[in-house]
Amino acid sequence: MPATPGLPDAEPPLTEVMQRALTVLWALGPEVVLDLGCGPGRETLALTAFPGVRVVAIDTDREALANAPEHANVLYVRADATRLPLASSAAQAAYSFGLLQALGGTSDAPTRDLMQDLQRVLHPSGVAIMGTLADFRGIERPDRSLTGAEVSKALRGRFVLQELIGLMDLEHDGQRCRYWYIAATPIADG
Q1: Cβ neighbourhood burial of 166 (10 Å; 0-12, 13-18, 19+)
Q2: Res 1: pLDDT
Q3: Are 53 and 110 in contact (CB under 8 A)?
Q4: Domain count, the chain
């Protein structure tokens, strides 16, 4: 896949959907980007590709963070994404792939808590790029796919959906799964 103008070459190459997500993020010229639910940092380094960007990568998994790649512009933080240890309006952008379905479980509360705290820490002119599982196709997992209605419910009153960036089919535990990416902007609190 050819590189998108203005985006770095990455190893492994970025998917078209990830390239589009980065294009949306970098149009803002963010100084601080959050990588929520970063795990071992597979996509974290792609977020550092532009000059002056500082990435705060957050996950609760100590082992995953210990295995994440080091980079001068990345601060890895072990924390709960539903209670972010950051000041209000601390970041201009947030990226997350897979966190929504991991929080989904059997209750809407964790997803609602995430969106509430994300609204707090994002600058009012910021953007959140969220990738989530749209179709399990029969895979038995503790996390779950979220319907469009469930994501809309989580965003309601806190974020405005700006764009469906794209759909992407990926292997997940040996089976094909469909993921989708959205871009949303925070609603001014108050």
Answers
A1: middle
A2: 30
A3: no
A4: 1
SS3 string, 166-188, reads EEEEEEECCEEEEEEEEEEEECC
Residue 10 lies in a domain: no
* DSSP string for the chain: -PPPTTS---SSPPPHHHHHHHHHHHHT--SEEEEET-TTTTTTGGGG-STT-EEEEEES-HHHHHTSPP-TTEEEEE--TTS--S-TT-EEEEEEESHHHHHHTT-SHHHHHHHHHHHHHEEEEEEEEEEEEEE-TT---SS----HHHHHHHHTTTEEEEEEEEEEEEEETTEEEEEEEEEEEEPPP-
pTM beyond 0.85: no
In a domain, residue 6? The reply is no
**CATH code of residue 122:** 3.40.50.150
> Is 82 a member of any domain?
yes
Using 70 as the pLDDT threshold, list the residues of the chain that sit under it: 1-15, 104-107, 133-148, 166-180, 189-190
Is 3 within a domain?
Answer: no
Task: Quote the domain boundaries for residue 24.
Answer: 16-186
Burial class for 145, CB neighbours closer than 10 Å (0-12, 13-18, 19+) = buried
Asked if 39 and 64 touch (Cβ cutoff 8 Å), the reply is yes
